Structure formats: C-alpha cells, structure tokens
Amino acid sequence: MVKDKCWTKELLIPLTLLVASAQSLLGPCRPVKTAMDIDEKKWPGELYYNLMSHNPGQRCSWVYRYLTYEDDKVLLGEEYRHIDNGTEIVDRLLGEHIGKGHYKFSAERDAEPSEEIHFYNLYYDPPRLDCHYVCSDDPAFEEGQGTFVCKSKYPDALKKYSRKIMKIARENGFDLKDMMMVDNCACDNIPYKFGPSTCKGPTVDQFFSPYYSKSK
C-alpha cells in the first residue's frame, strides 16, 4: 500500500510538484518555443513518466489526472505517485491556466500555504505522448536548471517517439545528455493498466540512437 507522506514534515522538501524533489532539479523559468494549450477534454486519464531530466533518484512514477471546478474556473488535478531515493511519495496538485501553454500548479492542501510551480506544456497528444517543462520563481531554486518530462500510457518509453522527443527537447533548449529513462520495473506503488514494464528498457543513448531498435 502506498504511504501518503507528502504532507508530513519528515520529508523536508518544499513541494515535489510534478517532477522535482530536490532544489537542484527546479530552476528559474526561461522562454520556451513550443508552448501549446492543453485540451482540457483530453486531460483526464493515467500516464507513466517515461523520460525526464535531472532526477536520477526517481523511479516508479505515474500520474492520475482529472478535472475539478472552482467558481467559474476549470482546474487541472493530478495525483502523482513516485519513489524518490527509496521513499514512496504521493502528491496531489491543482493547476490553472495562466497564458498560452503556461499553467501554475500548487498542492491541494487546506491547512498551509504552498509554493507554486510553473508548468509549460511543450507537446500534447495524450495518452501517446505528453512533454512539458517545470520551473519556479522561488529564489531557493535559482541554481537549478528546470525539469523536462515526457509521459505516455505505457510504463516504458516507445522507441518510435524518440525522434519526436529529441526534436521537442532541442527546440526548447534541453540537452539530451541530461536526460534519464524512468525505471518503472516491478513497481508496487503504481498500477499497470496497459501492461507491465518489460524491465529491459534502453539507456538514454540507445533510445535516441537511430541504430538501436530493440525497444517496444
């Protein structure tokens, strides 16, 4: 059973919010080129984190998305489950539209004020592929680089999307050398609705190589 630890003080992190669990992972927001609005009708569903930057300690990462409403606003809700350096974490988040492809997320909490994280949607075709960039205005993250993430309905990244992901990353100023494949092998904290991980996924170099084809 997943232990919901994200609201306890023992974790000693400000807010995981989508992809980051340490100050070095986030960074000041910078311009991106391919920001696009989210089709709210396609938001609800389940996705696995397949590839991301700057977080070698993260594995078993999955998100359940839903819509919720506040006054006249449509808010994007997420329940984000992952294991970070051996600790199971569940984050519940709410986001609202700010500008083209730009959303602001915060924790769904009643008691304490939470920090806000900026979310720039870079490519949106769920459940096939969904890529975005996460950053912060908080001075505590000024030394970070921001986080690039791609998700899909499959626990393992599909090789056929490697060129698309490469193009999105490069167009928006992300270095492929900073990427990591998210290990979703044999995870008890997340469901396997579309089948389990093969546990034989490629390395980042293999994933982006045009000469490597041993991938689902």
From TrEMBL:
Q: Which SUPFAM superfamilies match?
A: Lipocalins
Entry keyword set? Signal
Q: Which InterPro entries match?
A: Calycin (IPR012674)
- Keyword Signal on entry: yes
Top-level taxon of origin? Eukaryota
Which first-to-last residue range defines the signal peptide?
Answer: 1-22
The answer, when asked if Signal is one of the entry's keywords, is yes
Instruction: List the protein's name.
Output: Uncharacterized protein
